[in-house]
Amino acid sequence: MNAVHDDTTAVSDGPELGGFSINSYDPRAYLDAFEEPPPPMISSEGIVAHNITEEFRSAAATLEPGELVKDGYFTLFESVGALEIGDPKMDSGCLAPGESLDDDYDVTRPLLPGEVIGIIDQLLSLEIAWHLGYPLSQTLFTSVYIEHMLQPTPMTVQDADFIRNRPPQSQRDPMHGVLRAYCLGLLKSSCYVNERIKQEHSYEEEDFVTNTYNRSLLEKIGRYEIRDEIMEARNIIHEIRHTITDEMAHALGFRLELRTAFLRAIELSELRSDAESLSLPWSQMQGVWEAINKTRHLGKPVPEAFSTKIQRRLASTMPPRPIVQLGPEETHEHFKKLIADGIDVLNVLNYSDSQSLLNFVLTFQAQKPQPLVFIRALLQNFLFHDMVILGRLSIRQILDDDLSIVVLPSSLLLDPANDNVEAPHHPRYAIAHQMELFRQRAAQSYLDIFRAFCQNRCRVRRTLFHSLQDWETVQIDAEEIDQLLQLQTEEKPLVYPPSSGVVPSHSLPLSSWAYHYKLRLMEWTVQLGFELEIYQPDELAGMYWYLSYLSRTRAQHLERIKFFSAHRLETTTATSQQTRSKAYLHLATLEATTTHHLATALSALYTVLARLDLIPRPPRPYGTDALRYQVRMKPFASIGLPELPSFESFTTAVLKPNVSTPALLESAAKAAAAARVGLEVLSKMGEGEAFATGGRGGGGTGFERWVGGARAWMRACIAVGVAVESVKRALVANADEKAGMGGLTMSVEVPRPENGYHEWWIVPRVSKGRF
Amino acid sequence: MAASELAKDIESPPKAKLPGELKYIQYQHSLEAQYLPAIRALISKDLSEPYSIYVYRYFLCQWGHLCYLALHPTDSSLIGVVICKLEMHASHSPPTLRGYIAMLAVSAAYRGQGVATALVKMAIDAMSERNADEIVLETEETNIPAMRLYERLGFLRSKKLHRYYLNGNSAYRLVLLLRPADTDIAANLALDDATPP
C-alpha cells in the first residue's frame, strides 16, 4: 500500500531506484521482481505528499476480517465490477500452472484448400454469433488469423495480412491469399455493420456489443482496395484450378463472392434509392449462400486456429470467456434469415402513404424470430437518416399525409398554400403558424412510434409505456391548438352523438388524431404483454377485458372522427383524399371492433374457466389483489382519458357476478362470432384497403405479412369459438349426469404464445377428461 | 441480478430426504468465517459469472439481517441461503422503500421440499416488518420453478428484460407491492410519523 509518498521519501529511496530517471520511468524492470513496486513519484506544486502506509495498516488492523468500510456512493454496480486477483474466472492475467499466455499457432504454415474452407465456415458461424449479440472477443476475435491481421494496426492494404513483412519479391501462397482476401472482406463489412448499428438506436450489450476492444476493423483501408484484393484472390483460384478439384475451386469462389456481394449491398444501402436496384447484391448473396451451404462438407475444421487466449490481448478486463459455437444448421438458418430480411427491408423504400409505412414497420418487426439488429439498424437508417424520411420525404410530408388520412382529408388546415399568405390578419396566415406549432410539438412523438417498433420486443413494450405519457400531453397540447384553429376556420360545433341532446362540440381534429394514437399505444402495450408472457393464466380474463375496453373506446372514437369528417365534407364532391380517409377509417374501425369482440370473447371464456376452477390461481399469501392491480396497471394510472377503472369496477366487469355461467358462455360465443364476421372482411381486403401498399410494384411483403396476420387472428377466433362450445357441452353433460359429484370431465391448457395461432391471442385448449 | 437464477430446479424431485427439521437462522457478521465460504460455494455453483467477495460483503455487511440460512439439523452444514437488500429507490417518483431479493440458492440434493419458499418468506417478512413498500427481483426466463415459487407467493411479472444474462437469456422483473404506491398516502404517513406519540 504505497499510497502517497512525499518528495523527500522519493529522493531518499533514490538508490533503490537504480537505473531510473524521472523522465524515463520503465516499469518493465520490476515485472519479474517479487519486491514491492516502487512508490509513485509525486512532484508538483500544491501537493504535499505524505506516506500513509503505516497509518493505513494500523487502521486496517482494527477491523475484523470481512468488515466492510464504504461510503454511501459505493453501489452494487461497483461491487459487482470488483475483481479478485488470482481467481481465474475474474483475473484476466491469471494463468494455471504451466499454462502459456498465448497459443503457438503458426499462421505461416501452409494450408490445404479444405482447411481454408473449414476456417472460413467457422468464421461465418462466429460472424453470425456476433450479429446475434455476442461480443467480438468471443466470436471473430478468437481467430488467430484475424488477430494477426489486425495487430499491429495495418495502415495500408498491403500491411493487412496475417503474415507480415513478407520479402517483397516472394509470392503469396495461393491458399493464404484466399483466406487473407476473405478476412479483408469480412472485417471491412463488419466495420460497416458496427458503424451502422452505432449510429442508430439499439441497446449496447443487450441487442449487440459494438466494442472492438481497441482493434480497428480496417477503418483506414478503402472498400474498393479490398474489393480488388478479393477479385485478385478469385483470379488466383482460377489460375490454380488444375491443382485442386473443380468443386473445391467453386466452394472457395462462392465464399469470396459472398464477401464482395455483402460489401456491395452495404454500399448501395447508403443510397436509399429504390428497392429494386438495392436488392441486386442481396439476391446475389442469397444464391451464393445456398451454394456455400451445400459445400460445407468440403471443409476440414482447424480448431487450433481459434483461441480464447487472444482475449487477454484485447483492451478488456474480462478474463477469457468461451468461444460462442453455433452449429452449422443454426448458422445456416440465421444467415438465410439475415439475407432474406436484407432484401425484405428494402421494400420500406416503396412509400405510398404513412399508414402503409407504419403497417410495414409493425409487421416486419413482429416476425418471429425478429430481424437481426443490423437489419433493424438499416430500417432505422432508411426511415430517419438526416431527418429525411426514406431518403426523399420531409417529416412534414409524412405527418401531413397521416393527418389527412386519419382526420383531415382535403382540409384547409393542411393546404400548403397557407404558407404563402403574408398578411398577418389573414386566417390562413394564423392557420399556417398554428399548424407549424403543432407539427413541432407532435413530429418527434410521431416518429418515436416508428423508432420504438425498431427495437427488440421487450424494449418496444417498455418504450411504448414511456411514449404513452408523452402522447397524453401531445393530446392536451393539440387540443389547445384545435381551439385556436376552430376560431380561424369558424367551425360550427355539432351535437355528438347526434340527437343525444348534449352540448355541441367541435371536431378537434388534431387532438382526435393524438387520442387515436394514444389508444393504439395502449392496445399495443397490452398485446405485447400477451406476446411476452407477462401475464399469468389467471390474469388473462382481466387483461383481455381491459383490451376490449380500450379497443371499444377506440372504435367509438373513430365513429366520432367519421361523423365530423363526413359533416365537414358533405357539401363537397369527394376527392381522392376523402375516399382514402374513408377507407382508412373503415379499416381502423373494423380492426378495433374485431379486437374488441375477440378480446370480449376470451375474457368471458377465461372468467368461466376460472369459475370452474380450471385456471390455476396461486395462493398468494402476500400482497392483495388490489395492490397487484396497481402494479399491473401502473403505466395507465396517470392517463386521464380513458381513465383507468377502479379496482372494484374492474373486478366486477371481469368477474361479472350477476351473469350466470351459461349466459356468459353465450355472450362469449356471440362475441367470437362477431369477431369472425369482421375477420372475414379483413382477410379478403386488397393491399389498398388494408393500407399495406408496397408501392409501385404492388403486392409487397408488407401486405403478405398483413394477410398472414389477419388469417392467424381468424384461426385464433375459430379456436375461441371451439373452446366455448367444448365448455358448453361439458357443462350440459355434467348437468345431465345430475350427480355433480364427479366434477367436470374437462381439462384446460393455456398454451405459450408461440404455440398458439397468434402471439396476441392466448386461446385456452379445452379437452375432455378429468383434470 | 443473475444470482436469482439460483432458484433453478428448486421444485425438481428431491434427491435426498430432509434430515428432520431444518434450522433456519438469520445471518450475522460473527458467522462469516463459518458460513461465507459455503454461501459463496452454494451460490456460485450455478453461476457462469462468479461474484467477487465484495458482492457478498456488499449485501451481508449492510443487510445481514435480511439474509437467512437453512442449516442441516445435525451437522449444521449450509443447505440453503437467501440474500437481500432494502433501500430507498428514487429513480422515479415517488421514492419507494424497495426490497430486492438478490440471491437464492438451495443445495441440489434438498430441492423440491419447500426450503427456498421458506427462506423467501422469511426474507419478505423481515423486509415487510421494516416497512418495505415493494419487493422486486429478476429471474431467468427459463427458470420456470423460480418464477412459479415467486408467483405462488404473490409476485407479478412487470417486464421482460431482453438478453439480460451473459448467456444470452432474457429475464423477467417480478414485483410484489406491499403498500399502495400513492403519493398522497405516502405524504400522510410522513406527517403521521412526524407527530410525537
UniProtKB/TrEMBL annotation, chain A:
Residues 65-227 form the NAA35-like N-terminal domain. The keyword rRNA processing does not apply. Signal peptide: none annotated. It is found in: Cytoplasm. Residues 345-682 form the NAA35-like TPR repeats domain. One of its GO terms (cellular component) is NatC complex. It comes from the Eukaryota. Pfam families: Mak10, TPR_NAA35. Keywords: Cytoplasm. Belongs to the MAK10 family. PANTHER family: GLUCOSE REPRESSIBLE PROTEIN MAK10, N-ALPHA-ACETYLTRANSFERASE 35, NATC AUXILIARY SUBUNIT. This is Uncharacterized protein. It comes from Parathielavia appendiculata.
TrEMBL record, chain B:
GO terms for cellular component: NatC complex. Keywords: Acyltransferase, Transferase. Pfam families: Acetyltransf_1. GO terms for molecular function: protein-N-terminal amino-acid acetyltransferase activity. Residues 22-179 form the N-acetyltransferase domain. InterPro entries: Acyl_CoA_acyltransferase, GNAT_dom, NAA30-like. PROSITE patterns: GNAT. CDD domains: NAT_SF (cd04301). Belongs to the acetyltransferase family. MAK3 subfamily. This is Acyl-CoA N-acyltransferase.
